[in-house]
Amino acid sequence: MIDYEAMARYADERLPRYTSYPTAPLFSSAVAAPDYRHWLAALPPSTETALSLHIPFCRSMCWYCGCHTTITRRDEPISNYIDVLQREIELVARHVPAPLTVRHVHFGGGTPTTIEPEALRALVARLRVTFHIVPGAEIAVEIDPRTLTPDMMVALGEAGFTRASLGVQSFDPRVQKEINRIQSVDCTAAAVDGLRAAGIRGINFDLIYGLPLQTTASCVETVEQCLALQPDRFSVFGYAHVPKFKKHQRKINEASLPGGHARHDQATAIADVLVAAGFVPLGPRPFAPPRGTPAPAPARGPPPRNLPGYPTGSRGGLIRLGAPAICRLPPSYLPKQGGLRPDPQCVLQGELAAARGYRLTSDDILRADLIERLMCDLAVDVAEVCARHGITPATLAPALIRLRALANEGIVHIDGARIVVADHARPLVRTVASTFDAYLGDSQRLYSRAV
Hints:
Blueprint: H1 4-11, E1 14-15, H2 33-41, E2 48-55, E3 57-58, E4 70-71, H3 76-95, E5 101-109, H4 117-130, E6 132-143, H5 150-158, E7 163-169, H6 173-179, H7 185-197, E8 202-209, H8 216-227, E9 233-238, H9 260-276, E10 280-281, E11 286-288, E12 317-321, E13 326-329, E14 332-335, H10 344-348, E15 358-359, H11 362-377, E16 379-381, H12 382-388, H13 397-408, E17 412-415, E18 418-421, H14 429-433, E19 448-449
């Protein structure tokens, strides 16, 4: 039985996105640069690592944006940032015992393609010299099609990029006007064609629901327009309206935002169209190519999840370069220096830029594993995960009570120790994952809506 009132109620809850667990509010200055140095030095030579580089610059501000970015029309601030980023790459490499094996590199932002094409080539070359980027590694970049130039497309191909994620959000002209992002289908198609001509086979489209004036019908129309361009993957996000933290979001009229019930309907409608087209949902956001489609990326199947999303590469650590960023190294999560740039003085003086962190406990590691499996697979075998960690499921009794309540409302199915998110409740996976969050408490007000 499906309790639609309950689903609408849960959709309006404010919950973490669970790109990390525990989440950033728990980080403190008690874990900082000396710990970062120690953990880098302690990495086994065989460690496989993902790299993520943050380029926090855009040419214009989209009102919905939740990224850590700054707007500049000048190239000098970007060039100065890249110089510091190059130094940070050298610093990290200096503290590891051997060249790290890298199977996934992610360039995020901001808009990474705001840098000059030659600077991009040099940055990737530096990574290849400094780290062991394996043949066939996925090298991905986030792109704003509106500012993508032909020279940059060529540079991306020559630098060996294998995947491009294009921000689409919505093709509805009314929505685009409300979010200050005018982007035509033709502009997007030209970017797709140019990237493919440059040899980039993996094309991902990013869509957002819950935007001002957005409707279920306009969401479906956008998906259908996207399908005509034949991307091989989609990522679907719910708009996170947090004007307290992102002041530019105050330009959005809150009265024009869809409520929890409408957001759930939009997310469900997008998923239904993609599944009908053969795409396979992996967790709440990504939709993989139809089964039987040759994979442009090195690996298929359920991916690991890290802070940039769902890479097809390493299940090992994550080193993020640039700021703000969060590294994931055993035995901790370690955020970097706050603000929009790595601290130039810190890096230029030969110090790793790290200000706050968190040391995981054994209970944290167990719960992070449970949450990751839910967020990746929309299902988890609690007994199997607990057995791997040498912990009895009885330790999780409060979570299991909450899960039974969700089962009574039709949001999950429980089969013995296996928890499966109901198909119609996929947008509520963060609600299900939150049952394992030991720290949520009163911090919910810090987060965006669950759907």
